[in-house]
Amino acid sequence: MKIMSNEMLVAAYRDALNNGDDKTWIETLKLEVKKRGLSPKNEK
Fold first, then answer.
1. DSSP-based helix, strand, coil % in the chain, nearest 5
2. pTM attached to this predicted model
3. Is residue 21 part of a domain?
4. Which residue range is the domain that position 23 belongs to?
5. Average pLDDT for consecutive 10-residue bins of the chain (44 residues)?
6. Which of 3, 14, 34, 42 has the greatest count of CB atoms below 10 A from its CB?
7. CA-CA distance, 23 to 6, in Å (whole number)?
């Protein structure tokens, strides 16, 4: 995965959820968010 700041990672995760992107991409982003201990506010 491309190296991203925490803010960029959360934004990419939110965008993927809102755009209905590929499920594997969403899961990959979600795993990385959890690994970093972040919590996106509008998680579905």
1. 60, 0, 40
2. 0.76
3. yes
4. 6-35
5. 84 93 93 90 59
6. 14
7. 21
